[in-house]
């Protein structure tokens, strides 16, 4: 296991065991460097990834804190939004807002890469003309080199990627939070209306294939599963 992943697991374990509580400051990068005997950039990467995953909050000049914790549930399968809508007997449509290369440093880290560019898409999915999902996705170009050439109004990113390379594993978190003005506008939501946001990262083989945020208006969408 890479050193930065070991540090991430160490931090997550301290939080899970209650040793580090929500709102509390964690050891500094310098302290973690000494404890693990690794380079500062290794510790920095681990903390940046945990920050992008909303486990930690970094405050300039003050340190790194444990973010407010959220309850988690289990998503049993990764389904294509178009298939879900079709199963209800309704019509799916997609509006592509962004399909371009990106050098976003947090997204590059989330994909386990050292440098960009990576691929970025933003798509609004609608059911019978009503928007129900805002998809903000980053993709590993080493896994899907032709991603930017696709027409995602015809085939969703999920369907395209699963068709080419089935997912080996995934991690996810679900949040209830207010969207920013951009997301709210594209989901035709009222100011102050909350979203269900699913953050998910998936692997193909040993490589992180994609990192995605899926925003859903809480008044028009719910998440469910069976065991």
Automatic annotation (TrEMBL):
Coiled-coil residues: none
Q: Which PANTHER family match?
A: MANNOSYL-D-GLYCERATE TRANSPORT/METABOLISM SYSTEM REPRESSOR MNGR-RELATED, TRANSCRIPTIONAL REGULATOR PHNF-RELATED
Q: Tell me which UniProt keywords the record has, alphabetically.
A: DNA-binding, Transcription, Transcription regulation
Please state the span of the N-terminal signal peptide per the UniProt entry: none
Ranges of residues in domain HTH gntR-type: 1-69
Q: Name one Pfam family in it.
A: GntR
Gene (UniProt):
hutC
Query: What is the protein's given name?
Result: Histidine utilization repressor
């Amino acid at each position: 296991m890479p050193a930065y992943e070991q540090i991430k697991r160490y931090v997550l374990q301290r939080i899970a065991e209650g040793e580090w509580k929500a709102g509390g400051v964690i050891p500094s990068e310098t302290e973690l460097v000494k404890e693990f005997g690794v380079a500062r950039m290794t510790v920095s990467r681990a903390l940046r990834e945990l920050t992008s995953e909303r486990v930690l909050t970094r405050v300039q000049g003050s340190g790194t804190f444990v973010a407010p914790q959220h309850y988690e549930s289990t998503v049993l399968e990764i389904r294509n939004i178009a298939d879900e809508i079709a199963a209800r007997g309704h019509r799916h449509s997609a509006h592509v807002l962004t399909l371009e290369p990106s050098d976003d440093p947090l997204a590059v880290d989330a994909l386990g890469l050292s440098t960009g560019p990576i691929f970025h898409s933003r798509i609004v999915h609608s059911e019978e003309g009503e928007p129900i999902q805002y998809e903000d996705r980053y993709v590993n170009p080493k896994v899907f080199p032709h991603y930017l050439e696709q027409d995602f109004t015809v085939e969703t990113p999920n369907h395209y990627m699963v068709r080419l390379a089935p997912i080996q594993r995934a991690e996810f978190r679900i949040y209830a939070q207010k969207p920013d003005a951009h997301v709210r506008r594209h989901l035709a939501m009222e100011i102050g209306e909350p979203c269900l946001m699913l953050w998910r990262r998936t692997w193909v083989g040993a490589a992180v294939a994609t990192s995605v945020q899926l925003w859903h208006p809480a008044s028009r969408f719910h998440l469910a599963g069976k065991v």
